[in-house]
Structure formats: structure tokens, C-alpha cells
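quick one, two chains, predict together pls
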Amino acid sequence: MIFGPTPSQTVGPFFAIGLPFDGGAHAAPGDVPGAITISGAVLDGAGEPVHDALVETWQADPWGRFVDLHGWGGRSDLEGFLGFARVATDENGNYVVVTVKPGPTPGPGGGAQAPHIDVSVFARGLLHRCVTRIYFADEEELNAADRVLGTVPEARRGTLLARPTDGGYRFDIRLQGPGETVFFDP
Amino acid sequence: MAEVTARTRSPYAPVTDTPARYAREPAGTHPALDHAPYKSTALRHPKRPLVHLPHTVTEVTGPQLRRLAGDQDNNLLVHHGGEPIGERIVVSGRVLDTEGKPLRETLVEIWQANAAGRYRHRADRWPAPLDPNFSGAGRCVTDEEGRYRFLTIKPGPYPWGNHYNAWRPAHIHFSLLGRAFAQRLVTQMYFPGDQLFPYDPIFNSVRDESARQRMICRFSIARTEPSWATAYEFDVYLRGPAATPFEGAL
């Protein structure tokens, strides 16, 4: 390292004038086969909704490909797939992302990673983003073999599991307190 | 869903300029999430220890949102019928990694208060005037040398409710995507010599003095536009590659 990294600062309460964009809730178009919603609430240590949070998600397509600068893994066959969503929570602390379930991807030590979505949470009062991962409760076999999930204390793994609901999954993010979501040092 | 996931994956393409892993950043670079002087952190910071995240393909790739930056989106002076009020400034610089390598074609987003220190946001209610000619948000994409450039108005300081007589030093919010999820950064750019620095818990949440200095832009006579606008330079350093292949491994 030659230069020191620029430090993080909070997004503050007014990011909505700059960061949200049209279609930002869509990591994938809503009309592609396998389209799902992932929705939930961001909650603080008192269990109160965080109405001024920003949630960003990043993921592979169902074949494990990423729409990054180089099209990692090859070009996605999924028309309009971006793999990225950015949504602000509403007055009740809720967010909704439209996407598809990602496929398995290569993981540390040569094994496969279970389908997962990387998440950054930003808010007033968060001086640095909080990073978590969404795994899927209905992927028990792949989850059991996932080495990242395996490093999370067993009692807390459930906080990383999105649970099936009508048309998609529910994933709440508890910043603090009982049931606090597992956050990673990215 | 089962049908699509069952399809064979294509062979993974080589990735040319994305490092296998990113360097872990020195302690004190970023603020602690628990920072009592900034009251909003109290109920929002996680209390359980963070879990180490190895850099897998999900972390070393990242979204490309170049399309979000329209032609005039880096010029915050021209989006309304008239000229915004205040001190016109050029804010330019480079987005680099900590090895000094420029990050080309990456999205830079900014948002800020107007010259009176008021944001065009429904929740900003302090009695300073809104400027009908200023929205306060901009986007641009870095060039081949990692350079970006905005034309805007110097934002004013403003009071906030954190403690008695609390004022935020003038700042512009910056959002950087970099190349990879691991490089994602949101920060604030401050102006040199601000008298409010000693009193601001957000600025001072960065414990390391030299790291704090990296959030302050510098005045640039060279980039000043004669008879038009003063200029400030602000380079942003995102984390670079890990020094060894083993750093950051599980």
C-alpha cells in the first residue's frame, strides 16, 4: 500500500437527493423467468424501523455470472440482468428488491458457494457501511457446504437466511439488539 | 428456478485487472461504527463482532453504472432556468487505488447542500433559503486516467440537532463504486481550513489524523477558471490489491 485509503463517512439523512435512480430496485427485470422479490425491514436497536437507510445488493445471475466490467464468468444470458440494486427504505423501514436467485459460484478453497447476495447498508448514524449476505433458507444442502456461512457462529446463521414468502423471500436487517444480523468485515 | 440453476455454467473468463483479493485496511482508517459523540450511532451500530469475509468472486466484482451519468450531470449549475446563487467552484480529482493505479470508467456521485447550507430534501427544515436553481446532485464517470470533474456551488455549513449549537462543516458527499464490491465507499469531502472541524463528531469519527486529512480537498490555483470559478482538487483512494495472495484468504 502506497497511499492511505480515503475514510468512510455517513451518507447522512439527505442521500435521497443524489443516490437513488430510476429502476434502482431492479437487479433483474420483473418479467424474466424466475423473477422474485426480496423484501424486508431495516430495524434499529430499539426495534424501530430505519426510515432513512439505503440498501444495495450485488449478486451473480442464475448461472454464476456477474455483470461487472469484464462480464465475469461470461456474458449473462438473462436479458436486462444487472445484478445490482439500490433502494432507499420507506417510512416504515421497508425495502423491496426485484431480482432472480443467483446460482452457485466458486468459493474459497475450491468449493462452491451457496447462492448468496452481498448487501451494503448505509444510513444516517452509520459511519461506515454495514455489509451482510443474503442466503436462501430453501438451499439447505448448499448452505451446509458454504465455507463463509460455516465461519458464522451456528446460533446466528439464521439471521443470514431469507425465508420464502409469496413471490419471493423476506430478509430483515437488524442493525443492533436481539436477533442482530450478522455483519461482515469486508 | 430449479430448471435454470441446473443448466451448466460456462467456463469462467479470466479477469485481467481485478485483483484476486483486496488489502485489508489499517485500523483507524475508517470510523468505528460505535461513536458516541455522534448520537445517531447509538441505536444503529452493530454490537456483535464483525465476521471476517474472504474475498470471493462476489467481492472482487462490482456493478458498472456508467449509464447513470448523463452528459451534463457533472455540471450542477445548468439544470434550471437560471444560475444558482453562491461561489462557483470546480471540484476535480482522480479516483485511484491505494497503489496509485487510476480507476477508469467508474461512477462518481455527489450530493450537497446549497450555498446557504440547505438541502433540497423534505426532511431538511432549517430556515435557510432553498435555491430554485440548484438541486445539489451530480454524477460523472472517470476517464482513462481516473479523472472526474464537477462544476458546482460551494456548499454552506448548517446546524443540526446532535448537540447544543452543532454545525456541520461545509462538505460534499461522495459515492464511489470502484471496480469491486470490496471497494465501495461513501465519504464526505471537506474544505481546507474549516473552523468547524474541531467541533464536528462526524469528521472526528476518523481517529487517525492523517486519514482525516485525506477527506479535505485542496485549493488549486492551477485549476481555477479565470473570471469564472475557483477550484478544489480531491483525490479519492479506494483499497488496492492485497500484497500477497494469502492476505484476505479464508
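Chain B touches chain A through 93 residues (CB under 8 Å).
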